[in-house]
Amino acid sequence: xxxxxxxxxxxxxxxxxxxxxxxVDFLEYSQKRALEAVKAELGPFIGQVPxxxxxxxxxxxxxxxxxDYRVEALKQTAxxxxxxxxxxxxxxxxxxxxxxxxxxxxxxxxxxxxVVVGHIVALKQTLGRPILLENVTHSFxxxxxxxxxxxxxxRVLEKADCGLLLDVTNLFLNAETIGYDPLSFLNAIPRDRxxxxxxxxxxxxxxxxxxxxxxxxxxxxxxxTEWVMNNTSCDAITIERDTDMESFEDVxxxxxxxxxxxxxxxxxxxxxx
Amino acid sequence: xxxxxxQRMMLKVTISPDLSDELFVRPEDAGDRFGLxxxxxxxxxxxPRRVIESFxxxxxxxxxxxxxxxxxxxxxxxxxxxxxxxxxxxxxxGRDMHQNEWAAQLAAFLDFAAAQxxxxxxxxxxxxxxxxxxxxACATSPATPLPExxxxxxxxxxxxxxxxxxxxxxxxxxxDPELLERHYGQIGYVLCCPDSGKIDLYEIDQACYExxxxxxxxxxxxxxxxxxxxxxxxxxxxKEPQDMIDELLDMNIIVSTKGExxxx
Lengths: 273, 264
Known about the structure:
The structure holds two protein chains of two kinds.
Chain A: E1 4-8, H1 17-23, E2 26-30, H2 35-42, E3 51-54, H3 68-81, E4 86-89, E5 92-95, E6 98-104, H4 110-127, E7 131-134, H5 149-160, E8 163-167, H6 168-179, H7 182-188, E9 194-199, E10 201-205, E11 208-214, H8 219-231, E12 236-239, H9 252-265
Parallel strand pairs in A: 1-2, 1-12, 2-3, 3-4, 4-7, 7-8, 8-9, 9-12
Antiparallel strand pairs in A: 5-6, 10-11
Helix pairs in contact in A: 4-5, 5-7, 8-9
Chain B: H1 3-15, H2 17-25, H3 27-34, H4 38-45, H5 49-67, H6 73-76, H7 81-92, H8 102-116, H9 122-140, E1 152-154, E2 159-163, H10 167-171, H11 177-182, E3 188-195, E4 198-204, H12 206-213, H13 221-234, H14 241-250, E5 254-256
Antiparallel strand pairs in B: 1-5, 2-3, 3-4
Helix pairs in contact in B: 1-2, 2-3, 3-4, 5-7, 8-9, 13-14
């Protein structure tokens, strides 16, 4: 099982395998379509460090089921690295022939719950592995929701019997943008279903907040992370970093912050950084 | 409104500034188009306009990031965030990209950016967009075989051009408009070597540019040596003409075509 502090895999890590193994407990790999590319990128890490797989394009909230070839590619990657679990976003990004790379929040309705749960259950069966769903950032939700976001997520998790990849930065940004109390969200989530966290730095541009995965995690995000570690059974923190990064050393400062939180609330058997 | 209808409408709204404008300015037309009842139309109009417009830009920017951002980055850096957002949304009008078609639309986008520039910046935008279109053409043009004609010529994968600004400003993306305007007319020379869709840019000097220009098509070594000799004299270079040619041969920038002996 994956536990400890991990980081989203970047190509910049290739050639720094020893350093990576020294500092992280697991890697999170964002799914790529071609298995050969996955093998080429992850080769030195497979069997050396636990790897969980993060999917980006299944659009589980869409009416249409995910494309078979995407599910098959995901299964091949998950099998290759023997992923303890696979995660995907609780959102939609596709309708008919239209597809975007951004995630749109589902309306918080029973129909949306039924649709996404159906796709999650089918995916679980195909992959033969646990599925985690990630809360997405959103600045709008279709009017007419009958549940709060937290209540909606709880119902999906319980009905599909899956876990939550809680993106703490997304929660923070949503709370700031929409204007709700993040603790009321957290209190609606079943505490035993929070299995993995995402944390990352964010940016502000013209008064709008962006989940830009930069370096430097906001202290308020770290405070929420502490709350989660203190109040749920979550045992895996993952740092996401897409920019401000040329080598693995650039993520060490954020790793230290997360390691300190992890050690404070869990057995400090993992290596101190 | 069913989930399927909501998703179809929301996806369409996120890629279509025309539709979002219609929704907020002429809601009845949008309602007719999507078959919305009055109640549903009211629900759709509750979506925050500014947020939807920002999301449209986020969708476009992410698509650009995946396929074409390196080829528009210099142009966009001349604009503020709000200007970029407006330019992007204006470009998307009438172009509903159901999939990510930015790579195919890139040249049109750069032309659009140049055409939209305020008069005082028109020349700057024309130059920078021309440079980025050239980069894109270098990266996407199909590999050409070596000419049949024997001789020495610029390698097919190598591109070069002159540019009316110091090349380091362009290569290093130091694109402060005031700085560029101040240095306008200081000709820079840039060498471009595409590699698997990526672009490597190098600064070259005028002498190198002229030598490369002398062998766009295969020439005999004697002709190339004569050109190098003329250039070395003209610029009073402290190097032998042969060394100048050998450097470019060693770096595979100039190559020998079929049948030409590599030796002197």
